[in-house]
Amino acid sequence: MEKLFESIYPVDGGLTPSVFISIVAASLIIGFAISMLYLITNRKEGYSQSYVWTIIMLPPIVAIVIAAIGNNIASSLSLAGAFTLVRFRSAPGDPKQIAYVFYATATGLICGLGYIGFSILFLLIMAVVICILYYTKFAAATTSSMTLKITIPENLNYVGLFDKTLNKYTSNWILKRVKTTEFGTLFELIYSVEVQNTANQKEFIDELRTLNGNLNVVLVLYKYDDKVYAN
Question: Taking the mean position of all CA atoms in its chain, how far away is CA 195?
Answer without folding.
Answer: 21
